[in-house]
Amino acid sequence: PPVSHLLRDRCGRRWSCSLPLMMTAMPTSRIPDPYDAPPLRWGVLAPGWIAASMARAMQRSSQRILAVGSRTQAHADEFAARFGVERSYGSYEQLVSDPDIEAVYIASPHSAHHEQALLAIAAGKHVLVEKSFTRSAAEAREVVAAARAAGVACVEAMWPRFAPRFDIVRQLLEAGELGEIIAVDATHNQQLTAERVPRLHDPDRAGGALLDLGIYPVSFVSFVLGAPSRILAVGNLTPTGVDRTIAAVETGFATQPAAVATVTTTLAAQSAVNATVSGTKGSIELSGSTAFYSAGTVRLVRVDGSVMEAPAIGPSNHDALVYEACHMAQLVADGATESPYMPLDETVSIMETMDEIRRQVGVRFPGE
């Protein structure tokens, strides 16, 4: 909202106006130092590559991975040996039954999140669920309802939401630095062939570009504008029937009625992973050598051509996963069950948006 300012004219008379005061310097992040977070005893469910990235990030913090659970004992043992984890289990049921574990990090592919989140919640564990939260909004609603009924903390692990870079963007938007939002553009393209990543081409594992890559730009649009009331999506499919390339236009945002958002994603080509928010007073650019959702600078370009830039803050690449883990630990310590940075209702709303995009493009997963 505009800030009221007290001004004086040449005769010394005072009068007020409600013109917003433009920032003269970029805001500083309000995200707490993750290394100050209270410790939490974690279980890692499904020790794949993202779980390994999380383990490396946690090792530099107060968080403790107490146990790991896999579909095979050998895989669990290998992960435990690699990261110095005390306990390893050859089934997910054994992992969530460990009475010393407080929270479970669900690091499996999104096709399994629904079943595994419900398993952990039923065991009374707090859950940090990798993106995409589930395959569909219907599955997301079931997980959210179960977590709320059990009184456990449940958070979608959309890692940029918890990092300093996005908090700087959050403050610029809250302060109205861009004026009326006109356009949001976000893209995430990677060349992920069937030979390189078979699961992304498998409809049984909810493959396709959208849920694995497109979730980032879709979530970014939600972060900036909220939920759209209208979506127009086009795309094409792989020979196996999952989405290969998608372009979507989102409009009808309650908070910014004039805004138009465009989202593009493909697993067939590689490109820069950028995002831009444009308004009547300026724009925010998230680009550079890293993806818009990872650590990097925040560039504010005003319509008069002036530029301000906030430098990159905190660990780079997947070491920034430490922010979401430590945020979860703080929630549990505070007795909170939902994150203000990634509310469960918004997680469901994002899944609804992706459901509609998939419907228009013609992607249906087995069982839907």
Structural description of this entry:
This protein has 368 residues and is of the alpha/beta class. It has nine helices and 16 strands. The strands form three sheets. An eight-stranded mixed β-sheet has the order 10-11-12-9-13-14-15-16, covered by helices on one side. A six-stranded parallel β-sheet has the order 5-4-3-6-7-8, with helices on both faces. Strands 1-2 form a two-stranded antiparallel sheet. A hairpin with a 4-residue loop joins strand 15 (298-302) and strand 16 (307-310). The longest helix is centred in the last third of the chain and has 18 residues, at 344-361. It is globular and about 60 Å long. The termini are far apart.
Task: Give the gist of this structure.
With 368 residues, this protein is of the alpha/beta class.
Structural class: alpha/beta
Written as H for each helix and E for each strand, in order along the chain, the element string is: EEEHEHEHEHEHEHEHEEEEEEEHH
| Total strands | 16
Average predicted confidence as pLDDT: 93
| Main sheet characteristics | 8 strands, mixed
User: Helix count?
Assistant: 9
Overall, the morphology is globular
Strand order of the largest sheet: 10-11-12-9-13-14-15-16
Portion of residues in helices?
Answer: 25-40%
